[in-house]
Amino acid sequence: MAYTRKDVGNLTREERRRFVDALLTIKRRGEYDDFVRTHIRYFTADGENGLRPAHMAPSFLPWHRKFLLELERALRRVDSSVTVPYWDWTRHRTTTSVPWREDLMGGNGRRSDQQVTTGPFAYAHGNWTLREGVTDGEFLTRDLGRARAPIQLPTKSELEWALKDPVYDVAPWDSTARKGFRNKLEGWGTGRGSASWLNHNRVHRWVGGVMLGGASVNDPIFWLHHAFIDLQWTRWQRRHRGARYLPATPPGRGDAQRGRIVARHQKLPPWDVTPDELEDMGQIYRYA
Amino acid sequence: MVVGIGGVPVETGTGTSTTSTASGVGTVSTRRTCGTVGAATVRTGVGPGAAATAAAAAAGTSRPAGSTRREATRRLLASAVAAAMAPVVVGASRPARPGDTTFEETYRGRRIRGVWRHRSSGVKAGEWHVTVDGRPLHLMRRADGTWLSLVDHYQSYRTPLEAARGAVDELGPGQRLRDLAPGPVGEELHRLLMGGAHGGVHA
C-alpha cells in the first residue's frame, strides 16, 4: 500500500522525532554521505560535454524523484513508519517557520561563520559532521534569507507561473530553455542577480550555506525542499491530463543535445530506471 | 579598448584598476601577463585569439558601481567569448607558462588566481585553472556561456573571476576549499550510456 508524504507543518511530535532519528542513524552508518557524493558527482552543467542526468536537463525531476526514493528507502529500513515530509516554502516563509524548529532541522546559522548551532544537526552534538563537502568545514552552515543582501522565497504566483505551462520541457532542453514546466520550476533564469534565480534554484539560494553548493545534500532540508518540488510534478500532471515527460525520443543525429539528455525511455544513471517508469508513483507514495 | 562582435562595438575594461568591490571589503588589483588582450575581434573559433580575449573578459571585471552600459556590453562580450571557448576548468596551481593568460587578485582576503592553459591538440582550445588560496576551485560552464562554481552551484557568473569571487563570498572564515577533484562525469556517463553499460555508482 502506498505511504503518505506530509506537509512538515502537520507532523506530530513523534513523527518529527522518528524522521530525525532515522536521518541521524543513516548518517552514523555512513550511508548518508553516499547520497552527498552522488549529488556532487552527477551535477554536469550544460556548457560542458556529456550526459546531464540531474540538472539543467529534462530529467531534473525524475532524477531527483529517484534520489528521494532511495533516501526514503534507506530511512524506512531504519524505521518503516518514516516518510520524507515536504516543505511548502510558499507557506512556511520565515527564518523561524516550522522546518527550522529545534526538533526538526534546527535554526539559522550564527552570524560569525554561518554555523548551525541549534537542533539535531548542530555540530556540537557530534551527530552531523560533514565529511563530503566543497570546503574543509565540518559543520553545517546556513544563511537563511541571505543576511548581507536579503532575498525572499519564491511566492505562490511564481510557482503558478511554472505550473500553468502545459508543456513539460522544450528544446534546447537545458538551462536556457525559456518555456516548459521543467526549467520554470528548476529555475535557471536569464541575466544576473536576484531575478535570475527562480523557484527551485532560489530556495537553494535562500537557505544558503552548504545548500548553495554541489554538496547541498549535507543540509537535510534538501530532502524537504525536493519533496515539495516532486509534489509540483504530480500537481502539474494532474492539471495537464495526458501531458508527458519530454523528449519522448532521443534527439536525432546532428542535434547538439544528442547523447546529453535522457529521453523518456532511456536509462537514468546511476539507476536502472527510465523517466517513463518514474512518471506515476501512485503505487509507492502519495502526497497529503 | 573597443572590440567588435558581429559589427557591434563593445567596450571592455583593461589595465590594472583599484576599486571597491561589491561587498565593500578590500581592494582589487587585476594583473595580466598576456600581451594580447587587444585582439580586435572575438573569434567564434577556438584559436589563441579567442582564448586571449576570453582571458581579458575573465579578468577585466573590476568596475565602478552603477556603470550599467559597461555592464551590458561586458555581458555581450562575455557571452560571445563563451561561445568561442571550449569548456571545463579544473584547478591546479603550477606556474603560468609563456603564452598563458592569467588573472590574479586578493578579494576579501583570499588569493584568487586563474590561468588559461592552451592545448595544442584535442577538441578543446584549453582550460581555465582557477585557485582560491592555492586550492583548486572547480568551475563549470553553462550553455549561455556563464560560469558556475562548486561552491555556488545554483547561480552563474559572467566570467571565471566573478565565479571565483562569488565562491569567496560564500566561504566562511577559516574555511578552505577541499581538494575534491570530482570532475564532470558527463563524458564518462555518455560513454556508459552509448555503450549500453551501467555505471557502478549507487545512491
TrEMBL record, chain A:
Name of protein: Tyrosinase family protein
Domain Tyrosinase copper-binding, first and last residues per copy: 55-72, 219-230
Coiled-coil ranges from the UniProt annotation: none
Stored PROSITE patterns: TYROSINASE_1, TYROSINASE_2
Family classification: Belongs to the tyrosinase family.
Cofactors named for this entry: Cu(2+)
Record's keyword terms, sorted: Copper, Metal-binding, Oxidoreductase
